[in-house]
Each structure stands twice: as C-alpha cells, then as structure tokens.
Specification:
The chain is mainly α and 60 residues long. The protein contains 2 helices and no strands. The chain is elongated and about 55 Å long. The mean pLDDT is 78.
Length: 60
C-alpha cells in the first residue's frame, strides 16, 4: 500500500534498499512515519466527510 500511495502522490518514497547504519535509518524511519501519518489523516478526513453526508441524510 505504501508503494501505491508513494507513486500516486509522490510524497513518500523510501529507497528499496534498507538502511545499513543509523545515519541512513533515521531519515528512512521519518519518511515511513510521516507517510503512515499522512495516510491516517487522509482516511480520517474521508470518514468524517462521509459521516457528515450520512448524518445530513438522516435529518430529512
């Protein structure tokens, strides 16, 4: 899923090769962390929009 999102949005895109030392590990983990965090907030926004639409239909 991460590769699909990185290709679609071009936001995250860690290298295919895993880091071998701590200097390479920290930026890799930050990239993965912010990628997962951005996916979480995008899905949360979609859910809140869908919830608002559904709750507005219930009032009528």
């Amino acid at each position: 899923m991460g590769t699909v999102i990185s290709e679609w949005l071009n936001v995250i895109g860690p290298d295919i090769e895993l880091p071998t030392n701590m200097i390479e590990l920290i930026p890799y983990l930050l990239t993965v962390f912010f990628g997962v965090l951005s996916v979480y907030f995008v899905f949360k926004a979609f859910v809140s929009i869908a919830s608002a639409i559904i709750s507005s239909w219930r009032k009528f």
